[in-house]
Amino acid sequence: MKQSTQAFDPNITYQKRPNNAEHIKLFVSPYQYIQGKGVINEIGEYISLCVSGSVGILITPGRERALGTVLEKSLGSVGLSSIKTIFQGESSLLEVERVIACFQKPGMPINVIIGVGGGKCLDTARMAASKLNIPVVTVPTTASTDAPTAAHSVVYDEDGVFDRVEFSTISPLLVLVDLDIVANAPPRYLIAGMGDAYSTYFEARCCMENPDALTARGARPTMAALAIARQCRDVLLEYGVEALQELKSGCIGSAFSRIVEANILLSGIGFESGGLAGAHAVAQGLTVCRDLHKNCLHGELVAIGVMSQLIMEKRMEDAKDTAIFFRAVGLPLHLEQLGFDPIKRNAELDEIVRRSLEVPFMKYEPFEVTHNLLKSAIIEAGLLGKGKL
Ligand SMILES: [Zn+2]
Fold it and tell me: Of 20, 33, 74, 238, which residue is most buried, by most CB within 10 angstroms?
């Protein structure tokens, strides 16, 4: 296996065009998405349609206990041999190197990597596969992030502090979502996933309407991605509450299945080819506070970001609809619900605003976002959340 040493920068490939030609539109998505109850049992068969030989498995410790044997049995049943390593908890470059070393056994080159776990485990699997120039299969164990379908990974240092985003040249070969597995995660993960997914349409709309906005890969958003993002929001509004009821009753049905698809597939494709704007800039800015970074899930911070974005954009009808939905499913509307008092922690709020303004996609809002504009939008979201607007 030959390792690629050059980091791939899609902004060079896609954004820089000769003679200032207009930006291309770019749509990226996984090659296949499979969702259903118990599909983990057939993973070997699905993979064998595209790949033969050996498989490297990166899996979180809890999932190894629950699924390790199932995976090996399924892969073995179609003649795929496997080698496994347990994810150590951080999607750092050190962990990527460790995983690659585990999979580089003499005489047994692997042909695909399967990541089984949460966002960081999947990101690590993707980076290792990318460096080995082989495809990745992602098996998310929660429906809480966009990581499973993406063609890029977030790199953290050994202490869990954000380092950078690393891009892969290709999207996952297969995203396999077993509804029984994601139903096993605490409901908070599904709720946070709804927060992340709900923002997708409002950010893609912002990018579509602003001719200067680009996606993370340096291209213009596509209409396909915007349509997918809109469908994502509509599904959440229609089935979000019912899905939670199904999950809490222990009897998952079609509403749960729709929300899982919205959280993982529609949101994942919608954001990657639709673009990000204010909501994710605020979510990233909020991580400057250690307690928020440590105690909150990504989608919970994005929820705060959506409210702030819509208020900044003066889309009050959207903001009110959002508040109703967030309340119904239990997503936070304002910082106090995350244990952050914006009056007592005014200096930290200023720092959050400063950091948010530094995030590149904040500039895709259709007006200049000033410190005061964003700060008052965050505070106003609190008032709206408390029913004072
Ligand atoms: Zn997100």
Answer: 74
Q: From 227, 224, 342, 362, select the one nearest 289 (Cα to Cα).
A: 342
Asked whether the whole model's pTM tops 0.90, one would answer: yes
Ligand 1 centre to CA of 300 (Å) is 10
Strands, DSSP E only, in the chain?
A: 32-36, 54-59, 81-86, 112-117, 136-140, 152-156, 162-167, 174-178
Contacts of residues 366-369 at CB distance under 8 Å and 24 or more positions apart, as own/partner, are 366/206, 366/209, 366/210, 366/313, 369/278, 369/312
Contacts (Cβ under 8 Å, ≥6 apart) of 191: 244, 299, 329, 330, 331
Q: State the residue for tokens 């991605």.
A: 225
Give 346 Cα–ligand 1 centroid separation in angstroms.
26
The CATH number of 10-182, from 3.40.50.1970, 3.30.360.10, 3.40.50.720, 3.20.20.150, is 3.40.50.1970
% helix / strand / coil in the chain, to the nearest 5? 55, 15, 30
- Residue 159 CB partners (closer than 8 Å, separation 6+): none
Instruction: Measure 107 CA to ligand 1 centroid, in angstroms.
Output: 40
For the stretch 59-82, pLDDT in tens is 999 999 999 999 999 999 999 999
